[in-house]
Fold Helix-turn-helix domain-containing protein.
Amino acid sequence: MYLTIKETAEHLSMPENYIEALILQKKIRAVHDGEQYLINKDQFTTHLEQMETYKEQLDEWLSKPIPEDIDIKDED
């Protein structure tokens, strides 16, 4: 499925001018049909899946309690 720059910006929650800059820098693959750029939506699925995995890992890491330090001496 191909998306326009506007649709891609909405899909990725990014500004349109940033998407256009990424296309011009060849960081996003796109096809120019003479009037507009068309971007294949499937190229973002792997990236979005990896970002979700990283978010889950970070949440898991942040939710772990900090272990007690064995070097702390009780001075009572």
